[in-house]
């Protein structure tokens, strides 16, 4: 994923027939969900996240837990008919995942067939959009398009515990000078300052809503933090010897960060799927779908196996492979 010349080749390569077929299938799936479940959306949970985003345009911030600088985007979507807006939003997510897999050298087909993308599309979430934003951020850093990079960074940090973490490590690992890194931060700083001017105290409002909405019920939380607390930070220690391999170090850092977050959602593991991780984590990603039926008490929590499997695979090269030779 750090070979920039190969990244350009992947980006400009035409979509394969299987990729095109899966994209069409997902768009058809989304259209079916939007058209046939709209009236009963909140009864089954479908598109509820997208509806929460639209509600911010009318001043209803209940269930909204992101940076307020995204609200102008939702104002634009609120101008569209619900069906058209929801389908357009979902297509952006689908194409975001496809583009991100191209940029980061992931497997497009695996990512587009993951359980997480179906969850994201069903709920109308923005994780797929974040994938595309992170890919644009990485591409613009290496093309020295600082304005675009700054905008993409601003969007990414709207959800700091997932896209924000990945954006930070991309920013840190990019082959650019520290002067250029600081330059990229100008637009995010300006955006955050303006958000406080227009919405004073919005962070406190989010914290208050988190308590009121039982944000920490943790049924959908896959973080290991809720099981072992601060001991999750010990996951960072085995990562230190990986510094000689940038890709392994990067993947180990983002997955250990996800596991150590006090709260992390299953759908956000879709971000991991766009990186070169192989098929095993994709298959493991379907376990939560079974756990809901078979291990109801755990809910989606068993989804921690997704980032954990990627993490263990990265550190295996240091601690296990030398003994295999």
Give an account of the 3D structure.
By secondary structure, the chain is mainly α. It has one domain. 66% of the residues lie in helices and 0% in strands. It contains 21 helices and no strands. It has helices at 4-12, 17-37, 41-44, 48-55, 71-78, 82-103, 108-112, 115-123, 127-142, 146-156, 160-173, 178-184, 186-198, 202-212, 225-228, 246-260, 270-273, 280-284, 287-294, 305-319, 321-324. Helix 11 (160-173) runs antiparallel to helix 16. The longest helix is centred in the N-terminal third of the chain and has 22 residues, at 82-103. It is globular and about 55 Å long. The mean pLDDT is 88.
Kindly report the average pLDDT value.
88
Rg from alpha-carbon coordinates: 19 Å
Portion of residues in beta strands equals under 5%
Overall morphology: globular
Spans where pLDDT lies below 50 across 5 or more residues: none
- Give the CA-CA distance, first to last residue: 26 Å
Helix content: 55-70%
Provide the number of structural domains: 1
Q: Describe the biggest sheet?
A: none
How many runs of DSSP E, i.e. beta strands? 0
Number of helices: 21
Counting helices, strands and paired strands, the structural category is mainly alpha
The sequence of SSEs as H and E is: HHHHHHHHHHHHHHHHHHHHH
